[in-house]
TrEMBL record:
SUPFAM superfamilies cross-referenced by the UniProt entry: Tautomerase/MIF
Protein source organism: Rhizobium mongolense
Name of this protein: Tautomerase-like protein
Coiled-coil ranges from the UniProt annotation: none
Pfam families associated with the record: Tautomerase_2
Superkingdom: Bacteria
Length: 129
């Protein structure tokens, strides 16, 4: 049920974007214990001139490979979030060659009545999910 939004600079191939999406999904499955078909992802590609990602003074060297991962979800525990951060950094570095200093994650949490998966119904509220 999480909606995952990836913000990246233009220039990656379709295969690279696909691998990013697949890797994020694998980490989400592990960290959040959601069903495999619970997959809602969007990749937004931005012109380099429209993209600013500094390091908030933490000393990270940001590059054109920077990825901002936005997770829109029902509330997750601290344990789940930390597992997601750690798993994502490790897997994106291993599988996609993205430095851990080029990965930023932000959670936007909401409640059951904030979701409708179709048919004008709030399935979490009705008990369908």
């Amino acid at each position: 049920m999480p909606v995952i939004k990836l913000h990246i600079q233009k220039g990656r191939s379709e295969a690279e974007v696909g691998l990013l999406l697949d890797t994020v999904h694998e980490v989400m499955l592990s960290a959040f214990s959601v069903p495999e078909r619970d997959r809602y992802q969007l990749a937004f590609e931005h012109e380099a001139s429209h993209f600013r990602a500094l390091d908030t003074g933490l000393g990270f060297e940001r590059t054109q490979n920077f990825v901002l991962v936005e997770v829109v979800s029902r509330p997750r525990s601290r344990t789940e979030k930390l597992a997601f951060y750690q798993g994502l950094a490790a897997q994106l570095e291993e599988k996609c060659g993205i430095s851990t200093s080029d990965i930023m994650v932000s959670f936007v949490e909401n409640t059951d009545e904030d979701w409708s998966f179709g048919a004008g119904v709030a399935q979490f509220v009705t008990g369908e999910l």
